[in-house]
Amino acid sequence: MSDLQFSFKPIGILKSCYPDKFGVPRQSGLVKKAYSELQISSEFQPEFSLEGLSGYSHVWLQFVFHLNSSTRFHAKVHPPRLDGESIGLFATRSPHRPNPIGLSLVELVEVKKDTLIFAGADLVDGTPILDVKPYLPHIESKPDARGGWALEVQKDEIQVEFSDSAMEILQNWIKKTGKSELKEVITDVLKQDPRPVIYKGYESQESPYRNKHAFRLYEGDIHFQFTSKNHVIVFDILL
Ligand SMILES: C[S@@+](CC[C@H](N)C(=O)[O-])C[C@H]1O[C@@H](n2cnc3c(N)ncnc32)[C@H](O)[C@@H]1O
User: Ligand 1 pocket, 104 CB below 6 A?
Assistant: First the structure.
C-alpha cells in the first residue's frame, strides 16, 4: 500500500441554485435549466487560462464532495435507484468514495470574463471545484457504450402537479426574479424523486412526517407530497 498523498487547491467555489444536498439531482444533465456559476480565482489567471474555452458547449467539472459527513469506507453502497439493494462502490457514482472527488458533465452556457456559467450541474452551492476540462465529443461520446445496472433499472415517469396557491406564488417569484426557468427546474427535480428510500411507500398514509417534504431552491422552500408512487404535488412555496 502506497503512502503517497496529494493535496489540491480549488480553482474556485461554485455558486449553485441548490443551497442544500436534499433535492440536488443524482447526476448532471437531469435538470437541464439548473444554472450555476464559477469565478476562477485570480491566481489562476483567468484572463489567459480561459482563452479558447468558449468554443466548447460542455465541460467536465472535477470537484470535492465537501459536505460528506462520514469518512468510513464502505465497499458496497446502496444507490437510491436500487431501492435498498447494494452494489460495489466502483460500479456507482456515489459521493462516498476513498477520495471524495466527483465528476460532472455540464453545459457551458457562457464565459463572462473570469466567470463560467453552467447549466445542469448536480452540485450544492459552495462546492469546491478542482478543475474544468473541455468535453471532447469526437472522442468521448460513446453511443454504443453499455450502461450497466444503472440502465437496467427502469423507473415509471413521475407526474408533477402544482396546487393553485403554489402556482400563484411561483408566478410572483418568477416575476420578481426574472428566473423564467423556475417551474421547469422544480418539475425536473421532483421527476427524479429526491426522497430517501426510507421515506418511500408511505404515500397513502396521512403521516406528515413521512410523506411531506421540502427542498430548497435559491431562497425558496418547495413543499411537496407524493400522493402515489408516480404522482407528486407541490402544495406550497415559502419565500
Ligand atoms: C451521485 S453524486 C454524482 C456527482 C457527480 N456527477 C459524479 O458522478 O461524481 C450527486 C449527489 O451528490 C451530492 N452532492 C452534490 N454536491 C455535493 C457536495 N459538495 N458535497 C457532498 N455531496 C454533494 C448530492 O446529494 C447529489 O445528489
Answer: yes
